[in-house]
Amino acid sequence: MLAFPACAGDADVAQPDPTPPPASPSASPAEEFELGELAPPDFAGGGLGLWTKDKFFTIYEKPTKSSRSTRLKAWNPLGQRLRLLVLDTAEMTEGGGWFKVLVPERPNGSKGWIRSDPKDMKVDQLPARIEVDLSERRLEYFEAGKLVRTARVGIGQDQYPTPTGTFYIWASVPQPSPTGPYGRFALGLSGFSPVLSDWPGGGRSAIHGTAVESDRGQKVSHGCVRVFNKDMRKLEKLPLGTPVLIEA
């Protein structure tokens, strides 16, 4: 089973039925997009998520066909189609273009380039974003650039710090019981614990629910962000690829 080991111990996370691939993509071919206000670093207007109809992404070290490349599965272990967060674009001298993406693997902040191919690559606009301020122990949820909800949250203990940086939603996992270790819902992130790597799942971090109201504003987790179940409801429908910005 998939687990979020940086959260609450060895408890497994319940797996939903695999999410079917999108039947009718709403986005145009990738090369028709310009980042505009969706460009980093703040993702003020949301973001762009790149996905493929193929089984794998081919990710290059540089925006050239001759650079070293590797393959990344296009689905997470739950069968949900990944959207990789777009960071930048580049044009190819022979036509076409490239997308610079945030790769959901160690080390945190890993980046790569993907060729835009109208047959295989699609992009979705992602109007929402999540920001977490660890010093204030506060989560803010934005839609179309407007603050929608603020929540007091639990964060990692000093020996198990919550990772900081730019991430995105990598998995969406409903839970069997709202009183379980991950509350009513868990959002697996593209990033990992900076100190835990030998747990199941490699130490992947998450934003997840909790039924314990006293967790709010405390350093209580193994690196995940704990959101009181009532506040977590607002985040449950966010699509994979949604930007998550965590700062110290």
What does this structure look like?
With 248 residues, the protein is an all-beta fold. It folds into two domains: 30-126, Roll (SH3 type barrels), CATH 2.30.30; 128-247, L,D-transpeptidase catalytic domain-like (Beta Barrel). The chain is built from one helix and 16 strands. It has one helix spanning 229-232, and strands spanning 47-52, 56-60, 69-73, 84-91, 97-102, 111-115, 121-126, 128-133, 138-143, 146-156, 165-174, 185-192, 204-210, 219-221, 225-228, 243-247. An eight-stranded mixed beta barrel has the order 8-9-10-15-13-12-11-16. It is globular, with a radius of gyration of 18 Å. The chain starts with 46 loop residues before the first strand and ends with a strand.
SSE blueprint:
Layout: E1 47-52, E2 56-60, E3 69-73, E4 84-91, E5 97-102, E6 111-115, E7 121-126, E8 128-133, E9 138-143, E10 146-156, E11 165-174, E12 185-192, E13 204-210, E14 219-221, E15 225-228, H1 229-232, E16 243-247
Parallel strand pairs: 8-16, 10-14, 13-15
Antiparallel strand pairs: 1-4, 1-7, 2-3, 4-5, 5-6, 8-9, 9-10, 10-15, 11-12, 11-16, 12-13
